[in-house]
Amino acid sequence: MIYLDNAATTKPNDEAVKFALKYTEDYFNPSALYKQGIKLKSFLTEAADYITKTIAPSGYECVFVSCGSEADNTAIFSSAKRGNAVTTSGEHAAVYEPFLALKQREVETRFAALNKDGSVNVEHLLSLVDDKTSFVSVVHVNNETGAINDVNAIAALVKKKAPKTIFHSDGVQAYGKIPFTIGDNIDYYSISAHKIGGMKGTGALIKKKKICLHPLIYGGGQENGMRSGTENVFGIACFYKAAELKYSDVVGNFEKVKGLKKTFLSKLDGVTVISGENASPYIVSLSADGLKGEVLQHILEEKDIIVGTGSACSSRNHYSRVLKECGYSSGVLEGVLRISFASDTTEKEVLTAAEAINSATQNLRKIMK
Question: 90-109 pLDDT, tens per residue?
Answer without folding.
Answer: 999 999 999 999 999 999 99
